[in-house]
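Here is one chain, start to finish.
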Amino acid sequence: MKKPTCSHKEGQALLQFKQTLFIHNTASFLCNQDYGITSFLKTDSWKEDTDCCLWDGVSCDRDTGHVIGLDLSCSWLYGTIPSNSSLFFLQHLKMLNLAFNNFRQSNISHKFGQFPRLTHLNLSSSYFSGQVPSEISHHSKLVSLHLSILHLSKLVSFDLSRFSLPFLSDQEPFPELKLETTTLKWLAQNFSEVKELFLDGIDMFSVDPGYFMNLSSSLTSLSLDDCGLNGTISERIFQFPNLKLLKLGNNPVLVVYLPMSNGTNTLEILDLKQTVLIGELSDSIRGLKSLKSLNLASCDLNGSIPTSMGNLSQIVVLELSDNNFGGWIPESLANLTQLQHLDLSYKELEGTIPPHADGLSKLVSICLPSNLLNGTIPPWVFKLPSLKLLSLANNRLMGHISKFQSKSPSIIYFKNNMLQVIFQAQSSNL
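Its structure:
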């Protein structure tokens, strides 16, 4: 059977959409090959009198030829999308991705809420501003919604001087999206099938976070980093049966109630950094056996690091920095055989680094600076085959620095200790 071609009407709508936008390769500068995200001019393949189903970024229904998917992420698009845009003629769309472009701080049109079949919508980091339109909540079939903003002022890893960005002048404010409680209420009520909700960086200061408790039980990912949230998130958030990712970090006045040991076993990524935590951490950890990444940095935690941390057998990233933990580093951490990144910096930890930790053979980075650690650096540290970062600065360590068994780490910090260097690292900062 001959494969259907896309309709002439939809092809013309796409070409008209293309003509309303400018192309500038810096509009997608956040798409970085170092992170596996590449950018290119997808609309360059869009030509008159050719089958739009064969164009880059366009997907069509196999039976009808209708355009059901449009992925123009990282496509160098620069301009605005008004409510009369021909984009909104594509009424058969199921997936729309416009992430990592620059739409010049224009508002998100209410027409984005009028795709009747839409299941996936991604407008992340594309310089939209203003209110998130309430019409977005009309998508009862929506499975995935990404509206996150990456604030450039918080970028550490990017050297912006490499880019000529005429649309990012010093005077131009960073885009601000706001979500009102009414919109969130309708969203939680209507999104009966939603699995992914990424709203990082959106201003939610006036939002009652309790409405997030009304989301569908099918939820797998909820990311609300740096949203200005205040109020409380109850422990019920940890009881969503399919939740794998929960990010509530960088909301310094948000109160999060930790779960008891009966929390969900499905959670793999938990980021609560710089929030106010209520509950017993040791009990919570016992119920989160599937965690692969845990970030509790800057949460003003006290006491000792719970020995139950050693039960997180799947953990890869453990970030507990900038708290008020004291006491010794629990030897149970040596049980974390999958651990690659460990950060226990800026605490009041004392005693010695655990002398036996052969189970930590996968460590890539160890950060223990600005503690009260003493004694010598144990031999297992120098035997780690994949170690790239070792930071032990500002402690009371003494003795010799042995030669690393493998290639020297890229970054080494040993300053303000009582250590004697007996070898020259290939690339180090001592």
